[in-house]
């Protein structure tokens, strides 16, 4: 007789005895048509026999029969986590004291008889975990103080160092600082292996540092590709200036700053074979996705291996707004999806005969477990052994492999074990927000989600929908307070967007990994797989963009731990109220309708409730932070935009709140970044007729940025000069500065440079005269006061104060203009002291009402010349 079949039949009989008595019980592990039902001969198939022979019992115990969750490992894991977070920044003496004290107390507890202290073993285990965590954290913290590098950094010394790359180089996003754009920087996490100070001796060390490579302008950015192509384990020599890290508690001992235009990395040792293979696979995936549509080309590498180098800033912002950022990073979900191909869906984890590749190939469970381990190792190598990847592999393995045992009681102990091992391996993870979010999300999926799913199924929600709703809601409930600390914002569309994106994440990830594996051997096949994976990737991008465009997609929230605590209390209150509401379908429907109205905010309803925007607005000064962006009404859904601010998101939000879809003209007063860097936000999804600018193209990099934006969208670009008069609907304007023949370089008498070349406008609409001065400095203001247009500037209704209300004003010119209302655009708590108290006092002394965006928000001018009104949002 076949031994395997005999063993299977015996276990099948035992399985029938373990099953619930009620055949129609909705939460049974095997439904009435499952493969393990009584009398189904498929249970004795060769494939099931293989698994039975491997020692896996068919029909694992039902979760409800296993008793309460086992929480014994949770306190030691939390204690080790807290210790690892505190010890690295503490003096060495404190760390030694913690280790010694914990060991002594643990020894004292273990020496006493157990009958006298029944909880002594658990307390001793906790203390031993604290001691181990403190020792590991102290050793890692000592790396930051050992050797000459920290002292050299405090002296800002210039050194020649041999550096070993420990993580993938990445390129920062361009950002605006003041009136200039800070170019991208290549960031490389590395270890200094040898260091030589000028005129000194060479010292062998192993000190973690951060290498900053300044890319510079477009002429030197080609050199950045050589830095970005460096693989982990590569060693190179570089001459750089050391400096201390900006904040204490970082996992680096110093910062090495390098200029890419002056030197290239001098490689002294090639990367390891595994890293070269991983680099080739990642490069193949990028090549396979090269011809995909923009969103798919950007997202597919991010979904598969966390490569977000192609993701544009506006799409990244949309993912943040909709709480979909986790899909762009390597997370436990990535590994769970790939491992599910081998083991089968998690929903079938309690059955011996799964639907994965392993049972279909007839592989025993031990071989399947070995393949799962190899798959985890390959995942870590390909996606790089960064802390986030290690965390993803550990949490993903816990979530699926614990389910594969068929014992839900093992889930929390397994998660606690993973946390304990990870903080012992890398104590810096204890201070990582990403690690905290991963643990919270995994814990939510293992504890809250099953209960919520069962509750929804009892209320006749379809099983798959109930599981998806419970998973998204549980993760959102636990992670939202931490996300609020990071972003100072709470997303109201996170749960529905995650639900809609969830159906596309798995196919995109699977097809992406298939393209990754086939690219080195069959690029045409990889391109076909990538093309198929591009469809779900574009779906995810579309969800993110659509959700982010909704007026009520999120609400501002205090970005502090106090704010996080408040949000946690609000979440608990909402959950308690939700339990009661679930008993009343009509109330549930009403609440859902109210939430939809809050998120969508139909313009008529929003205008009635918020009073914004006013129905008869003539000009709106958008709140874009430390920059300028004004909107001049030119008809229904039409407006002329003057300047775009420093960031695309705020100006886009302002225009969407005003319902602007058509922009006949974008006028950029000058090329400083706080006026032009937000241009993509103005152009996003709107019909733009032309872009008009000053003739002085300084700074050159920002002038080139504006040209690229105009060329990419086929928008005409022209220069403005004094005397030019135009009209759009009820709106008319006259350019009063700069002169008709502006200088092509900074004039000697114009120390303001690009500021004094700003385009100044005199605008007329509905009997209101508005003077917009850009960033004109006192020399240009004095020249403007003597120009032929000076008479028309006297006694204007509204003045857009130059240069964010700085102290650099010609007060005689302000007295000549004598506005009734002065508006100032400046950022909250800006470091420039804008607006200057003297400027505000001078304007008020003339009887002008002074309003500012840092305190009053966006400002809308309404009414007519006789009845001028201002409304804030």
Protein described:
It is a single chain. This protein is α/β, with parallel strands linked by helices. α14 (387-404) packs antiparallel against α15 (411-425) and α19 packs antiparallel against α20.
> How large is the count of helical segments?
32
Quaternary organization: single chain
Indicate the proportion of strand residues: 15-25%
Radius of gyration: 32 Å
| Spatial order of the strands forming the largest sheet | 19-18-16-14-13-12-27-28
Report how far the terminal alpha carbons are from each other. Answer: 83 Å
Report mean pLDDT, rounded to a whole number: 81
Main sheet record: 8 strands, mixed
Find the count of extended strands (DSSP E, 2+ residues): 28
Q: Find the structural class using helix and strand composition.
A: alpha/beta
> What is the helix fraction of residues, given as a range?
40-55%
Model regions low in confidence, pLDDT < 50 over at least 5 residues: 1-66, 347-353, 743-751
How would you describe the shape?
globular
């Amino acid at each position: 007789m076949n031994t395997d079949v005999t063993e299977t039949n015996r276990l099948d009989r035992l399985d029938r005895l373990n099953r619930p008595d009620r055949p129609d019980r909705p939460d049974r592990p095997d439904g009435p048509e499952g493969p393990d039902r009584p009398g189904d001969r498929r249970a004795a198939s060769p494939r099931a026999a293989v698994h039975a022979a491997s020692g896996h019992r068919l029909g694992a115990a039902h979760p409800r029969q296993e008793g309460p969750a086992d929480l014994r490992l949770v306190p030691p894991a939390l204690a080790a986590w807290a210790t690892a977070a505190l010890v690295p920044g503490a003096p060495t003496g404190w760390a030694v004291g913690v280790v010694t004290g914990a060991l002594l107390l643990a020894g004292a507890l273990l020496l006493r008889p157990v009958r006298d202290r029944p909880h002594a073993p658990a307390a001793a285990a906790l203390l031993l975990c604290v001691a181990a965590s403190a020792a590991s954290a102290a050793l890692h913290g000592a790396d930051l103080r050992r050797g000459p590098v920290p002292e050299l950094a405090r002296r800002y010394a210039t050194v020649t160092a041999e550096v070993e790359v420990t993580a993938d180089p990445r390129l920062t996003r361009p950002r605006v600082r003041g009136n200039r754009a800070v170019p991208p920087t290549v960031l490389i996490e590395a270890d200094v292996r040898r260091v030589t100070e000028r005129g000194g001796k060479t010292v062998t060390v192993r000190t973690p540092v951060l290498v900053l490579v300044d890319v510079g302008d477009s002429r030197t950015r080609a050199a950045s590709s050589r830095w970005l192509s460096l693989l982990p384990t590569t060693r190179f020599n570089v001459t750089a200036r050391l400096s201390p890290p900006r904040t204490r508690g970082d996992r680096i001992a110093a910062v090495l700053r390098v200029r890419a235009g002056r030197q290239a990395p001098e490689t002294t040792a090639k990367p390891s074979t595994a890293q070269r293979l991983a680099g080739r696979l990642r490069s193949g995936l990028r090549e396979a996705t090269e011809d995909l549509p923009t969103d798919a080309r950007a997202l597919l590498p991010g979904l598969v291996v966390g490569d977000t180098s192609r993701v544009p800033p506006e799409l990244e912002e949309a993912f943040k707004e909709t709480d979909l950022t986790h899909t762009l990073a390597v997370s436990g979900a990535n590994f769970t999806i790939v491992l599910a191909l081998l083991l089968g869906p998690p929903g079938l984890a309690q059955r011996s005969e799964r639907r994965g590749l392993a049972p279909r190939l007839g592989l025993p469970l031990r071989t399947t477990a070995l393949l799962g381990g190899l798959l985890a190792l390959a995942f870590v190598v390909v996606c790089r052994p960064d802390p986030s990847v290690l965390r993803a592999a550990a949490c993903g393995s816990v979530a699926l492999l614990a389910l594969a045992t068929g014992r839900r009681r093992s889930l929390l102990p397994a998660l606690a074990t993973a946390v304990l091992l990870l903080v012992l391996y890398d104590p810096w993870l204890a201070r990582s927000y990403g690690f905290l979010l991963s643990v919270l999300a995994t814990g939510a999926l293992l504890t809250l989600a099953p209960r919520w799913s069962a509750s929804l199924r009892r209320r006749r929600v379809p099983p798959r929908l109930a599981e998806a709703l419970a998973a998204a809601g549980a993760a959102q409930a636990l992670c939202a307070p931490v996300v609020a600390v990071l972003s100072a914002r709470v997303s109201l569309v996170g749960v529905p967007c995650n639900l809609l994106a969830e159906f596309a994440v798995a196919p995109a990830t699977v097809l992406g990994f298939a393209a990754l594996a086939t690219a080195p051997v069959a690029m045409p096949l990889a391109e076909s797989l990538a093309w198929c994976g591009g469809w779900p990737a574009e779906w995810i991008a579309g969800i993110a963009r659509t959700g982010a465009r909704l007026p009520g997609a999120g609400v501002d929230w205090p970005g502090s731990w106090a704010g996080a605590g408040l949000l946690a209390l609000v979440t608990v209150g909402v959950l308690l109220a939700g339990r009661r509401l679930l008993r009343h379908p009509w109330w549930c429907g009403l609440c859902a309708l109210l939430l939809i109205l809050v998120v969508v905010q139909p313009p008529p309803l929003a205008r009635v409730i918020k009073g914004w925007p006013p129905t008869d607005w003539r000009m709106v000064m958008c709140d874009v932070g430390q920059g300028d962006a004004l909107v001049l009404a030119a008809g229904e859904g039409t407006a002329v935009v003057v300047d775009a601010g420093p960031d695309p998101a705020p100006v886009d939000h302002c225009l969407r709140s005003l319902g602007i879809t058509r922009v006949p003209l974008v006028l950029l007063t000058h090329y400083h970044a706080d006026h032009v860097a937000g241009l993509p936000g103005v152009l996003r999804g709107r019909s733009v007729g032309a872009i008009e600018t000053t003739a002085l193209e300084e700074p050159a990099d920002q002038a080139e940025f504006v040209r690229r934006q105009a060329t990419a969208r086929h928008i005409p670009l022209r220069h403005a000069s004094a005397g030019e008069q135009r009209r759009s609907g009820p709106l008319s304007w006259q350019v009063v500065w700069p002169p008709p023949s502006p200088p092509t370089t900074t004039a000697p008498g114009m120390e303001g440079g690009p500021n004094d070349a700003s385009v100044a406008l005199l605008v007329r609409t509905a009997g209101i005269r508005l003077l917009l001065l850009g960033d004109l400095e006192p020399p240009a203001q004095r020249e403007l006061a003597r120009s032929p247009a000076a008479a028309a500037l006297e006694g204007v209704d509204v003045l857009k104060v130059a240069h964010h209300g700085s102290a650099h004003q010609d007060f005689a010119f302000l007295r000549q203009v004598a506005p009734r209302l002065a508006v100032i655009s400046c950022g909250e708590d800006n470091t420039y002291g804008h607006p200057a108290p003297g400027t505000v006092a001078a304007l008020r002394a003339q009887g002008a009402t002074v309003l500012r965006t840092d305190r009053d928000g966006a400002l809308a001018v309404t009414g007519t010349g006789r009845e001028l009104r201002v409304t804030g949002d």
